Amino acid sequence: RKIAISFFGGTEEVTGSNYLLEIDGARGKTRILVDCGLFQGSRVSEEKNSEPFPYKPSSIDAVLVTHAHLDHVGRIPKLVKDGFKGKIYSTYPTKDFAKLMLIDSIGVLTKEAKKDGKNQPIYQEEDVDKAMSLWEAKNYRESFEIEGISVLFKDAGHILGSAMIEITNSENAGIKEKKKKLVFSGDLGNSPEPLINPTEVINDANFMVIESTYGDRLHEDYSQADLKLERAIENIVKKKGTLMIPAFSLERTQRILYQINDLVENGRIPKIKIFLDSPLSIKATGVYKNYAGLYNTEAKNSILKGDDLFDFPGLVLTMEAEESKKILEVAPPKIIIAGSGMCNGGRIVHHLKNYLPSKNNTLLFVSYLAVGSLGRLLHDGERAVNIMGEKIPVEAEIEKIGGYSSHADLNGLLGFAAKSADTLEKVFVTHGELKSSSFLVQRLRDYLGVSAVAPRYGETQEIEI
């Protein structure tokens, strides 16, 4: 069957993932979307979110979701609002996380809409509710069909519930020749992780759409990252300052909590107040606890020994805004973990305003920073930044830990594709800044000898499975 893949997001940038599959069949075309995410980072990219979709939402039969980060699910309620009536499929944790993420995002989208002089955000809570009513969860490796197309979710090892998607033709099932396979990597994990299972092996893909967030660089290893975190905490105690850690509410926050839990319980760091100042992170951590059965063996064993992986002495959860404001009254040293990871919104912005002007404080980045985001500006050395209409001087120390990335690096991406080197006919490299995707394209060609391209926005490529 012929499939036309159109790339309507995640091209030459790391956000807005959205791919349209138009599949020829006996009863006409089947239209399936893979992901439908928000564009994030710069003002220009965020303006794309309110533009009409480049296809008719009512013509889409189904949406397949790789995982619950907003750059993969954030426009699904808009799709529903604009006429989509099909089915949405993902793993069980992804469905639960997506509901949290989408409802939480309405506040930020409402503020953006007001700033742009619009009456309302691109969607509201009723649109999220409608999307959830169309959403059907599946287990990993539970095959299901959409109009003669067989779909399977495999563990991507990126965040809890994250999936790679395998698509094969299930029409004419009696034919003996081996069916060709199209694989969407979603976001691939930086395996091995201390909490979730490693990325599953796929060794027979014929066509692949692969992410390239870190397609041009390597991460430091986890032991180095853990040591850096330990030193940053010891340093802040010595300076009697405040350590700010902007972290994505889903996965990165849980990873940092897991590591601090280990440091506290093994007496590796002095006693210190640690504020988890993010209602979304607190709720997402609750979902993590609900799916402990999907953790890796090491984490499951820790739980069996009675260890609550996300709770330890000194940890304070601040759900309410009033509790968040009172953190300022707590004498340092202290640690504040708050969203958002790129500092484009959320409670971290208020803490930056309060703590950036003092050299006793440290801002520690542990997440990807998109071009144009406040986090990227601070990381790149800006000495004064505009926060809530005020020019804030930057005297605090700025640090970055790369090893906590939940994305595969260059070697991880190449290694994943290499397992299908004997069968691969074409690789489409997406979800990366231009230099990252271009670099990975070249490596795939040079090292694996496969045909690889980085599609542009709106480009359509045809394959046959």
Main attributes?
465 residues, alpha/beta, seven-stranded mixed sheet, 14 helices, 21% strand, globular
Query: Could you tell me the number of beta strands?
Result: 22
Q: Decide which structural class fits the backbone.
A: alpha/beta
User: Please, what is the average pLDDT?
Assistant: 94
Distance between the termini: 5 Å
- Quick one: overall form? globular
* Count of helical regions: 14
Unreliable spans: none
Multimerization state: single chain
Strand sequence of the main sheet, in spatial order? Answer: 6-5-4-3-2-1-22
Q: How big a fraction of the residues is strand?
A: 15-25%
**Nearest-angstrom radius of gyration?**
22 Å
Biggest sheet, in brief? 7 strands, mixed
Task: Please summarize what this structure is.
By secondary structure, the protein is α/β, with parallel strands linked by helices.
Describe the structure.
With 465 residues, this protein is an alpha/beta fold. The protein has helices at residues 43-47, 70-73, 76-81, 92-115, 125-133, 222-239, 252-265, 279-290, 297-304, 321-326, 348-355, 374-379, 410-418, 434-448, and strands spanning 2-7, 19-23, 30-34, 62-64, 87-91, 135-138, 144-146, 149-155, 163-169, 181-184, 207-211, 242-246, 273-276, 315-317, 334-338, 362-365, 384-387, 390-393, 397-400, 426-430, 452-453, 460-464. The strands form 4 sheets. The chain has a 7-stranded mixed beta sheet with strand order 6-5-4-3-2-1-22. A 7-stranded mixed beta sheet has the order 7-8-9-10-11-20-21, with helices on one face. Strands 14-13-15-12-16-19 form a 6-stranded parallel beta sheet, with helices on both faces. It is globular and about 70 Å long.
